[in-house]
């Protein structure tokens, strides 16, 4: 534009000079006027352009303001919607069909006719119960709603709510007095569709000095589906340190020290766990007779608090090799007492009945486990071996019974003792007994990219006792088996990692009774009081479809 | 009931053939722990926090994940080609804006 003006001005000057110097004719004047008009026009155009430019700038400014306001409105909308939503949720929903089968041995019937004239060997003087086989298929729904929140970097809340229920109405509440037990509230299918608390705890992250990180946690902590057991449940991450000897829901605290930086041992940490498995309280409005209320939440007589202290150690973890250990002590473990009623103990024959009379403190127990996992056999030998997981674990326990009498005969503990029905001791023995177990397995790639096969074996000795009441095997905890247990499973994706399936077969061949039972006479390897029938073998076939996100 | 169980299993076995492949953040975590943690001086979650999910996605899709890992961990050795997909899955899931909440 400037060039145009310059050339026009030059032309104007030239023409003007010429006209001054030469003759001033009308034509020249006309041309001059025309040029002046053109210049005026151009100036008007330039003015118009300036106006347009200003308008564009104004529009741009308005647009920016509009964008900002729109974004601000959106943020306000999102914040208003999410205000107070301080928990992130996850869903783990599973529908399963599980076939369970048991082969029951023979023994003493719980009610019947006694005859003192029979040879006094075993339970001949009482009514015998014949062995029988049992099988059933149970359909279940299991929903775990996971929760997490992190208001600041070093404080976390974690929790989960669970519903594990059989299809439809059942008569479980009339047939099992141990069904709705706190130790497996969301780990065994219940007869109702009630949401129960599975986990709820806070976790504080701190650091001592510059290289000793620690965590402190309090609440209902994750202690099911732990290390090694997670594979059979197709859980990528173990929920707790060792699943071989502890797999049950648990309230308590933990304090973990990360020792990796100060020792230069990869993955080394120590975690102290304290918990309470039974609280001695009568609750509110309890009555010891029909006239008087007991003090609210006063303690009872036979059931002191049951406490557990454990030290968990991750001895090494470099991503391929992982070694973990635990050692624990449990106090005031519970055992079931029995009331035996005989129609006339002084008569040679008559009728008898037996019924449980509640839990009693039967003694203490110590336990230990050492577990090793290898994720990838060798290093780069083959993709198959790189993707293969092998593990082996050993565990042991030792009882320390108080030998209190827990049974009665016609209402008398003395009479029960005289007749040999005292129910004293732990696991059916008044001595300190030691049990042990080994557990091994392999988890290998399947036909496709993310399906997996698994094979597991475990063996338990005569007095082996695990705390695996939360193990998700309807036929009974396989890791509690006194004898041999075999298992094979196939886990596969259906819709990516979000919808998966599994089929699993578990077979338990019991050498002794009392597996997966409590700590007193019901844990007797020869059956309750040494005479009651117990399962000689059990098996389970489970198929499920599971949604996780 | 047994028939129902068998039928369900057959259906699932048929469906499994339609199952697509997916990366695995657990594998990624193990790979990082085994191959990068020591040379890098930080664990997997710390590496993941170096970028947002969008940034990790852009880096991975541009085929620049090996370079980025080398930048973050200069002393590290290159991973196997097949490992990067799993490592990316872990880094994405635990990125600085992932909202992942740590557990004990």
Listing every helix as H and every strand as E from the N terminus to the C terminus, the arrangement of chain B reads: HHHHHHH
Q: What is the count of DSSP helices of chain B, taking H or I runs of 4+ residues?
A: 7
In the predicted model, the low-confidence regions of chain B spanning at least 5 consecutive residues are 14-22
Main beta-sheet annotation of chain A = 16 strands, antiparallel, barrel
Proportion in β-strands of chain B: under 5%
- Overall mean pLDDT of chain A: 89
Features:
heterodimer; A: 549 residues; alpha+beta; Porin; two-stranded antiparallel ribbon; elongated; B: 104 residues; 7 helices; 61% helix; 0% strand; globular
Notes on the protein architecture:
The complex is a heterodimer of chains A (549) and B (104). Chain A is an alpha+beta fold and 549 residues long. Chain A has a single domain (91-285, 293-548), classed as Porin, CATH 2.40.160. In chain A, 18% of the residues lie in helices and 43% in strands. Chain A has helices at residues 2-21, 26-82, 172-175, 229-232, 260-263, 383-386, 413-418, and strands spanning 88-104, 107-108, 111-115, 128-129, 132-152, 155-166, 196-208, 212-221, 250-258, 269-278, 306-317, 321-342, 349-375, 389-401, 408-409, 434-445, 452-460, 483-495, 499-510, 535-548. In chain A, the strands form 2 sheets. In chain A, strands 1-5-6-7-8-9-10-11-12-13-14-16-17-18-19-20 form a 16-stranded antiparallel barrel. In chain A, strands 2-4 form a two-stranded antiparallel sheet. The model of chain A has no long low-confidence stretch (mean pLDDT 89). The longest helix of chain B is centred in the N-terminal third of the chain and has 15 residues, at 2-16. The model of chain B is unreliable at 14-22 (pLDDT under 50). In chain B, helix 2 crosses helix 7 and helix 5 (53-61) runs antiparallel to helix 7 (83-93). Chain B has a domain at 29-99. Chain B has helices at residues 2-16, 25-35, 37-40, 44-48, 53-61, 65-72, 83-93. By secondary structure, chain B is mostly helical. Chain B is globular. Chain B contains 7 helices and no strands. Chain B is 61% helix and 0% strand. Classes of the chains: A alpha+beta (549), B mainly alpha (104). At the A-B interface, strand 1, strand 5, strand 18 and strand 20 of A face helix 1 and helix 2 of B.
């Amino acid at each position: 534009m400037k060039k145009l003006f310059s050339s026009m001005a030059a032309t104007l000057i030239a023409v003007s000079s010429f006209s001054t110097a030469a003759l001033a004719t009308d034509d020249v004047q006309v041309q001059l006027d025309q040029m002046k008009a053109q210049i005026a026009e151009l100036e008007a155009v330039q003015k118009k352009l300036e106006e347009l430019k200003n308008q564009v700038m104004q529009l741009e400014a308005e647009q920016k303001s509009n964008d900002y306001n729109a974004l601000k409105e959106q943020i306000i909308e999102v914040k208003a919607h999410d205000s107070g939503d301080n928990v992130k949720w996850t869903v783990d929903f599973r529908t399963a069909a599980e076939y369970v089968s048991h082969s029951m041995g023979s023994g003493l019937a719980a009610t019947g006719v006694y005859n003192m004239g029979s040879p006094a060997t075993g339970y001949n003087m009482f009514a015998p119960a014949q062995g029988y086989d049992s099988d059933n298929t149970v359909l279940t729904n299991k929903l775990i709603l996971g929760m997490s929140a992190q208001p600041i970097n070093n404080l976390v809340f974690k929790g989960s709510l669970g519903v594990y229920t059989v299809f439809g109405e059942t008569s479980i509440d009339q047939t099992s007095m141990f069904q709705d037990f706190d130790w497996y509230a969301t780990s065994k299918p219940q007869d109702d569709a009630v949401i129960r608390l599975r986990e709820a705890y806070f976790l504080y992250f701190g650091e001592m000095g510059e290289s000793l990180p620690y965590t402190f946690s309090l609440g209902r902590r994750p202690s099911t589906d732990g290390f090694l057991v997670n594979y059979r449940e197709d859980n990528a991450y173990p929920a707790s340190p060792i699943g071989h000897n502890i797999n049950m829901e648990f309230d308590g605290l933990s304090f973990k020290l990360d020792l990796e930086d100060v020792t230069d041992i990869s993955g080394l940490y120590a975690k102290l766990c304290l918990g309470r498995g039974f609280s001695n309280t009568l609750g509110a409005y309890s009555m010891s007779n029909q006239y008087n209320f007991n003090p609210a939440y006063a303690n009872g007589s036979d059931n002191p608090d049951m406490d557990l202290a454990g030290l968990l150690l991750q001895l090494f973890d470099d991503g391929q090799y992982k070694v973990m250990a635990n050692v624990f002590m449990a106090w005031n473990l519970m055992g079931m007492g029995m009331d035996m009623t005989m129609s006339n103990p002084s008569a040679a024959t008559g009728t008898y009945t037996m019924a449980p009379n509640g839990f009693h403190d039967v003694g203490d127990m110590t336990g230990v486990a050492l577990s090793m996992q290898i994720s990838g056999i060798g290093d780069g030998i083959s993709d198959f071996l790189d993707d293969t997981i092998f593990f082996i674990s050993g565990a042991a326990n030792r009882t320390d019974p108080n030998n209190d009498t827990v049974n009665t005969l016609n209402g008398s503990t003395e009479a029960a003792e005289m007749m040999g029905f005292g129910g004293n001791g732990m696991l059916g023995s008044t001595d300190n007994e030691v049990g042990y177990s080994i557990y091994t397995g392999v988890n290998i790639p399947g036909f496709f990219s993310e399906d997996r096969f698994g094979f597991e074996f475990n063996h338990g000795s005569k007095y082996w006792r695990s705390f695996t009441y939360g193990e998700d095997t309807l036929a009974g905890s396989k890791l509690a088996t006194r004898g041999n247990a075999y298992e094979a499973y196939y886990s596969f994706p259906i819709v990516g990692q979000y919808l998966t399936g599994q089929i699993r077969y578990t077979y338990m061949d019991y050498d002794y009774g009392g597996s997966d039972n409590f700590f007193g006479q019901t844990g007797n390897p020869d059956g309750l009081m040494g005479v009651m029938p117990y399962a000689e073998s059990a098996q389970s076939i489970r198929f499920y479809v599971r949604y996780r996100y | 009931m047994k028939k129902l169980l068998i039928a369900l299993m057959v259906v699932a076995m048929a469906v499994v053939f339609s199952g697509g492949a997916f990366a695995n953040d657990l594998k990624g975590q193990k790979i990082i722990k085994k191959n990068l943690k020591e040379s890098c001086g930080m664990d997997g979650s710390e590496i993941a926090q170096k970028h947002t999910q969008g940034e990790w996605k852009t880096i991975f899709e541009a085929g620049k994940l090996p370079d980025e890992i080398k930048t973050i961990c200069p002393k590290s050795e290159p991973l196997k080609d097949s490992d990067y997909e799993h490592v990316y899955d872990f880094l994405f899931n635990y990125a600085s804006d992932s909202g992942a909440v740590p557990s004990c």
